[in-house]
User: Fold this.
Amino acid sequence: DQQVKQNSPSLSVQEGRISILNCDYTNSMFDYFLWYKKYPAEGPTFLISISSIKDKNEDGRFTVFLNKSAKHLSLHIVPSQPGDSAVYFCAASAMDSNYQLIWGAGTKLIIKP
Amino acid sequence: DTAVSQTPKYLVTQMGNDKSIKCEQNLGHDTMYWYKQDSKKFLKIMFSYNNKELIINETVPNRFSPKSPDKAHLNLHINSLELGDSAVYFCASSQDLLAGAGKNIQYFGAGTRLSVL
Assistant:
């Protein structure tokens, strides 16, 4: 029973264009959401997060949007750069489960030159 | 100077053996975790320790035993290894899991790829 779903295993985007990665969740108790980036043979690294009291959080080229009614969040990267090629994981947590992170399966982003 | 380091990076062993994976963090964090990344690439929490006390203990076989000698270290010992234990194991740490989501940004080690033959 996947509570956090990333339905696109991979995504290919032209360098300089916008990359949009999507994530859906089923647990309405989730109140904090995070995106992590992972390069091969490395551990995930934190990218950006958003609390459920917000609908948008921006950090440089990265923006996360949260649509609570649709239980959907997305990560926008603009402009996309070659170094953005990686696997992106969405994760969510809830106060009533000790903020344990529940992870999606990841989306592999490939930035084409 | 690696923030979260785990050793070894690769571990190849025979079924039935006992092995340990070590993890150390130099971030001054109170909380440490062990995750298993399965063949479908899902990251699943196994254990979480906060100030050396077990906080999260998901349903894992009792052949897996975490040990936290101090809050900077969380080692994972695995007894009687089985083929299904083959996976990548990640150690992570965060400032303080119990202080709220904002204190739970997790920092990961590079992973240990365990292959059981």
The first strand of chain A starts at residue 4 and ends at 5. Chain A has no helices and eleven strands. The mean pLDDT of chain A is 95.
